[in-house]
Amino acid sequence: MNTPEGLDARSVRRWFDRASKTYAGVASLQGEVREELLARLDFFDLSPGVVLDLGAGLGESTLALRRRFPRACVIPVDLSSAMLRQGVGRGSFWRRPMALCADTRRLPLADGTVDLAFSSLMLQWCDVPLLAFREIARVLRPGGLLLASTFGPLTLQELRSAWASADTTPHVSQFPDLPELAGQLSAGGFQEPVLDIEQQQRYYPDSMALQRELQALGARNADHARRRSLTGKSRWRAMTAQYETRRMAQGLPATWELIYMAAFSGGPARPLAEAGEQRFPASAIRRRERP
Fold first, then answer.
1. In angstroms, rounded to a whole number, what is the distance separating the alpha carbons of residues 124 and 101?
2. Looking at domain 9-153+175-203+257-287, what is its CATH homologous superfamily?
């Protein structure tokens, strides 16, 4: 869980600390995405010496990476110390833990000392992913691999729309789209970026069930512009009424847009193109529909 530049960093840390005991019970989507990202390692011929698990949380991906690369030094990194502590009892790896409680934008590691950076669903907490990409590229050796997943802008679009009908302040975090990520990867010093995107739709009995799940995950709205006072009953009723208009036979739908990316370090970091222009190869974009 990386501290984002434009979000409320203290709240992000606090929410994930609180969620350390409830996260595992509700993180089914996160587990699916983690397994998909781990499976994508099969596409690369890797024998890494040092691996970073960025946004390691409870350490499930750390354990999987250690099993896959038993000779490697696999280091979990997370902003939430409570998440890292909660993972101490998980598996034999944690009996000799070497973990970093750190911000991905400011890694306490020397240049060019990492072979593989793995990050499953952490980058959505960076409203400027470029800052994280530059730091990851710094610690990766030339030719080192970044393999990551994050949420796209259509994530929770139904909830966002329902809240927009009831309140002018943001209630759902914004996520960068695929072109933004591709441009920031290149600007951050990565080469040959390959990205693809897919969507999943999940269903909930009511809007409160979705909100409870997000709270248990620690995935709350951290926008600095969010309402700091309690949400009034009238606004809550307006939101739920609007959301109910989307009800389907399976329940209330919630879209999760997933972006997967792989890129190699080695290019010099450079500024983003002016006026919001971002250039990257068309081959860097792929769309994959889940059957």
1. 18
2. Vaccinia Virus protein VP39 (3.40.50.150)
- pTM of structure: 0.83
What are the pLDDT tens digits along the chain (291 aa)? 444 445 566 666 675 667 667 777 777 899 999 999 999 999 999 999 999 999 998 889 999 999 999 999 999 999 888 888 877 655 554 445 578 888 898 899 999 999 999 999 999 888 789 999 999 999 999 999 999 999 999 999 999 999 888 776 766 778 889 999 999 999 999 998 999 999 999 999 999 999 889 888 776 655 544 444 445 678 888 999 999 999 999 999 999 999 999 999 985 555 554 434 444 443 444 444 443
Residue 89 DSSP label:
G
Calculate ∠ Cα 268-269-272, nearest 5°.
135
* Phi and psi torsions of 80, nearest 5°: -90, 110
